[in-house]
Amino acid sequence: MLRSKGKQIVFVTNNSTKSRADYQKKLESLGIPASVDEVFGSSYSAAIYISRILRLAKDQSTVFVLGESGIETELDSESVPHIGGTDQAYNRLIEPKDYTAIASGEALDPSVGVVLAGLDFHVNYLKLSYALAYLRRGAKFLATNVDVTLPSAGSLFPGAGAIGAPLVAMMGGEQPTALGKPSQAMMDAIEGKFKFDRARTCMVGDRLDTDIRFGIEGGLGGTLCVMTGVTRSKAEWEGEGVKIYPTAWVKELGDLRG
């Protein structure tokens, strides 16, 4: 419907577990035609930020990943070296010798200059210990996004923000630079790639604190809330003092067909 009217479409997602190519395949399986270039995920946003904005020194250019293959794929697309992630060497219980090796620095890679936290289905004490050690040694703290929950199977489960939260606590409240919605760093990156007019752009999403806030703070022309995700009722933005509310809403996207 939108394509037939000549509208430009960008699929923006905070799910860091999938690469752009993964999402393109998922959209196609749902009957939604899309190209890889039309997908802009938080993993890709983080990879762009690290490779083109941070401009790390070569001897500090490796990323320690808390996350899944989607992050690794996008880092590879930008030729960013990385460790951790899905490497099975980190998918185990911590052992007594690990404490000594991490504390002394023997087990640490001296080239790590960034700790990137995303949704990690296999997060464990060992991975968090490595991440903390790198941060304490001066590595930059980044997050694909800070959503503490994610909707699935009609319920809520821990999100990427829940993976990074222990590190925030251990680092005395230091917050990571977030590269997903509602971070305007992501909006700027999208605008830089797609060259769109913000005043003529509408953000469509199902979550007030990420999608709708992303559009509002990005100065977009409008926002549309779809009641099929985390936000399920108008009551969530009709209360007194609520500052985040959409321009319009529908129960489901199909309602747009009239």
Question: Please, could you describe this protein's structure?
Answer:
With 258 residues, the protein is of the alpha/beta class. Helices cover 34% and strands 18% of the residues. It has nine helices and twelve strands. Strands 4-3-5-6-9 form a five-stranded parallel beta sheet, sandwiched between helices. Strands 10-11-12 form a three-stranded parallel beta sheet, with helices on one face. The radius of gyration is 19 Å and the shape is globular. The termini are close together.
Sketch the major β-sheet.
5 strands, parallel
Secondary structure category: alpha/beta
Helix content percent band:
25-40%
Helical run tally: 9
Global morphology: globular
Count of beta strands = 12
Report a brief summary of the structure:
The chain is α/β, with parallel strands linked by helices. It is built from nine helices and twelve strands.
